[in-house]
Fold:
Amino acid sequence: MEENKVDMFIMANGRYFESFQIPQIRDHLLKLDDSKWTFIQSLNLKNPTTTLIVSLLVGYLGIDRFMIGDTGLGIAKLLTCGGLGIWTIVDWFLIQGATKKKNMEKLQQYLF
Structure:
């Protein structure tokens, strides 16, 4: 794939991934053929900051976990009112990392 396309993708979407993953993503994108570029561009990546805000406001309902695709954890948080509030507070610190992890998993489906 063209280097300028890859750099534009990294600039536009770098905040959706952990910083240590960016060089690996760049290397894999450079090796990718142009036929997959449309799929890469159309990925629906979740914004970690938005997920954190949702977690702060209604995290006790599990909506933050539903947003990133953790349906089982979302149901568990909903049924336990966020683990009686404890799980909700823990998620305030973990939800951004979980969102970035899910984004990487989604991207890896197209890279490998």
